[in-house]
Design brief:
The chain is of the alpha/beta class and 180 residues long. The protein is built from 9 helices and 4 strands, in the order βαβααααβααβαα. Strands 2-1-3-4 form a 4-stranded parallel beta sheet, with helices on both faces.
Length: 180
């Protein structure tokens, strides 16, 4: 299964979600590939020609501390490092929509933006448009989590965001396992 994560700028939340999925999918007996992007072109293009955004470095530091605490190393650690070393990218409804089985956003607004991008890409009655739109959910919506449907912006709530991502991914893994 291929899960594609979206946040605003592909700096923090989408990378945390992707990293946690890589960490936990094996624990749930699942073979999952992940990728991520952002839906806010203005936010992304500020970072395209720069080094890794500071938010990504901070997110990598937080998950690194958890990995050390959990005693995780080797191949999984390398996969997490690869996730955080990628350049930021903008969601491409055609490319990413065809690749993904699920497209999960960090917030409701990002879900709305992703759906708008899909609608602007495909003709109104196309099969690809309908198929891609059906794949888009918020992480918490797909994981059937109660409460606030949004994962907080990492810059404003570092540890809380990391814990929300971890918990949301575990809920997503449970649902994917049940539906497999």
């Amino acid at each position: 299964m291929n899960i594609f994560y979206l946040c605003s700028g592909n700096k923090c939340r989408s990378r945390l979600l992707s990293a946690y999925t890589s960490l936990f999918s094996g624990d749930y007996g699942l073979d999952i590939e992940t990728d991520s992007a952002g839906v806010d072109a203005g936010d992304i293009y500020r970072w395209v020609n720069s080094d890794l955004p500071s938010g990504s470095r901070q997110a990598r530091r937080v998950i690194g501390e958890q990995l050390d605490e959990w005693g995780i190393e080797g191949e999984v650690l390398q996969k997490v490092d690869d996730i955080f070393s990628q350049r930021v990218k903008l969601f491409d409804p055609e490319e990413h929509g065809q690749w993904a089985d699920l497209i999960l956003t960090a917030t409701r607004n990002q879900k709305i933006m992703a759906r708008r991008m899909v609608r602007n890409t495909y003709p109104v009655f196309s099969r690809e448009r309908r198929r891609t739109l059906r794949k888009i959910r918020t992480v918490k919506e797909y994981g059937r989590l109660d409460g606030d449907p949004d994962i907080l912006d990492y810059i404003n709530a570092r540890i809380v965001t990391a814990k929300q991502c971890e918990f949301a991914v575990k809920s997503v893994m449970e649902r994917v396992r049940k539906e497999s």
